[in-house]
Amino acid sequence: MRETHRRDEILRLLRVQERVQTESLAQRFHVTVQTLRRDLAEMELAGLLTRTHGGAVPRSTVTNIGYADRKVLNADAKDAIAIRTAELIPQRASLFLDIGTTVEALAQALLRHDGLMVITNNLRAATILAENPSAEVIVAGGVLRRADAGLVGEQTVGFLRQFKPDFAVLSASALDGQGDMLDYDFREVQVSRMAQAQARKSLLIADHSKFQRQAPVRIGSLSGVDGFVTDTEPPAPLRGQLSDWGTAIYLSGRKKQA
Questions:
Q1: What digits encode the pLDDT tens for the residues 100-137?
Q2: How open is the CA angle 73-37-14, to the nearest 5 degrees?
Q3: Is 235 helix (H, G, I), strand (E, B) or coil?
Q4: How far are the Cα atoms of 71, 104, 166, 232 from residue 173, in angstroms, in the given order?
């Protein structure tokens, strides 16, 4: 059984059994215990499960994985998504940048853009873009979330009402099969919703691992965004919905109109 199929089956078993044992899985898939331990370690890093002594249990759906782990998770895919997204942003555009490690990669990819106005509640992205001498960087006020240097809350929401940028670039911690964008912090979600409502166009940027995760707070539907930038084709049922909604899919390295 291929690695991806094996890991999909482990997630299926966790949904049914609530706990799996390493040795039993090794026997089931005819691989070594060391191979299964590596699978579980990498799946834990991806936020798909939590390892226990001798096995694993489902990951919490109400707590995000730590910033340091998210920063390195699928870093190459995030960089590719960032480069593709930067191609969609014209010179001298105005845009809102959301909180998230993929958004930070986008900030890096925008360093050579000329004449940008960037509104953001992401202090890390603002610090990166401060290196672009032609960019005007406007930082929203709000409550500092120390875990990832994001600013959230009612003050942030109110601040964004002053602007009508060309683009809102949004992130999400999870995406479900119905095309809903999900996150963990309702305060961050309020900011994302306001940014999307104020912008002329909105883009979601997220890598393929977000389809394998769950989160409790709904940002909105992909039906409400103009484009979705990702690194692999979305699952087939969702591709059909995106086509019906008229949401464009931009894959790293090429573009496909949904």
A1: 999 999 999 999 999 999 999 999 999 999 999 999 99
A2: 80
A3: coil
A4: 13, 14, 24, 16
CA 254 to chain centre: 19
Checking if the pLDDT of 212 tops 80, the result is no
Q: Is the dihedral of CA 215, 219, 221, 225 positive or negative?
A: negative
Q: Indicate whether 63 belongs to any domain.
A: no
Between helix 101-109 and helix 75-88 the angle, nearest 10°, is 50
Global pTM exceeds 0.90: no
In tens, the pLDDT along 149-191 reads 999 999 999 999 999 999 999 999 999 989 999 999 999 999 9
Q: What SS3 class is residue 204? A: strand
The answer to whether 76 touches 209, Cβ cutoff 8 Å, is no
Q: What is the pLDDT of residue 51?
A: 86
DSSP letter assigned to residue 153: S
DSSP states along 176-198: -TT-EEEES-HHHHHHHHHHHHH
Q: Where are the alpha helices (DSSP H) in the chain?
A: 3-17, 22-29, 33-45, 67-72, 75-88, 101-109, 123-129, 154-160, 186-198, 236-245
**Which domain covers residue 24, as residue numbers?**
3-58
Q: Verify that 120 and 198 share a domain, yes or no.
A: yes
CATH code, domain with 149: 3.40.50.1360
